[in-house]
């Protein structure tokens, strides 16, 4: 008995009307043109994360300084203090050549409450979640498995403000989620996070992955704008969701994306599945959705949206190779 979506219907027996054909659809139909010559899978990377190998004192440190060069004085950090807490090994290295077969990136969209895809999400070999999005009491909606959790600076601040955690029983390392930080400000937080949360696996994503990935994001943004879609100038930094998906593309054969539905005009469908917060920047959310639709139409990812639930249901469908040769090694 394969798990299936248990979708929530409205009283008239249908799904809530999602915007079905918008500028996003028009742009996504031009996916081949937008993605021409683009590869999201980085080649030649020794590591996706910072660790203390024999290159740390030279090449890696130069990359770190480049990534954090724009930070204000309060975010600066010293090399000695930073080096003391850097992990001595890269526990992800085995996945660079022998990738996970199926991965899920699980966003926080309120549309997840309609799909109730938790059992299907848990079928994936690896699951990445964002920030502090809860799973407990929402298992039927988002599942329980968490392999990676991509965290932003605000989560880092909140973690550092909490009381010191009690000592835990040792977890099985293969069952323990890996915390990933990537913003430049998080490099400043990192030593304190590592010292405080000694039982957790915490990495910084490597600038040698981040810098070209963000350059690629900006290139795709310019290509989309060249087709007539203009976005506010404030949308310059890569979205948190996009970085997580780009990370999974490095270590997964297939990437399914849940919880990144288009912003919905129906007030009953919340921005998040777990709270009543409103989006801070609707335009940024719309642009991220547009870009992901392009990647979906090009075959780099598979978006599992409420308008097309059946696409991501069955275990045998999860394991059909889908990523285009454009991202293959």
Automatic annotation (TrEMBL):
Q: Which residues form the signal peptide?
A: none
Q: Which UniProt keywords apply?
A: Disulfide bond, Glycoprotein, Glycosyltransferase, Golgi apparatus, Membrane, Signal-anchor, Transferase, Transmembrane, Transmembrane helix
Q: Which reaction does it catalyse?
A: a beta-D-galactoside + CMP-N-acetyl-beta-neuraminate = an N-acetyl-alpha-neuraminyl-(2->6)-beta-D-galactosyl derivative + CMP + H(+)
InterPro entries from the xrefs?
Answer: Glyco_trans_29 (IPR001675), GT29-like_sf (IPR038578)
List, in alphabetical order, the GO biological process terms annotated in this UniProt record.
sialylation
Q: How does it sit in the membrane?
A: Single-pass type II membrane protein
Q: Where in the cell is it found?
A: Golgi apparatus, Golgi stack membrane
Gene Ontology CC = Golgi cisterna membrane
Has keyword Membrane?
yes
Q: Which Pfam families match?
A: Glyco_transf_29
GO molecular-function term, one example from the UniProt record: beta-galactoside alpha-2,6-sialyltransferase activity
Domain of life the protein comes from: Eukaryota
On whether Transferase is a keyword of this UniProt record, the answer is: yes
According to the record, the segments passing through the membrane are none
> According to the UniProt record, what class of enzyme is this?
transferase
Question: Which EC numbers characterise this protein's activity in its record?
Answer: 2.4.3.1
By its UniProt entry, which PANTHER family does this protein fall under? Answer: BETA-GALACTOSIDE ALPHA-2,6-SIALYLTRANSFERASE
Q: Which family does it belong to?
A: Belongs to the glycosyltransferase 29 family.
Name this polypeptide is given: beta-galactoside alpha-(2,6)-sialyltransferase
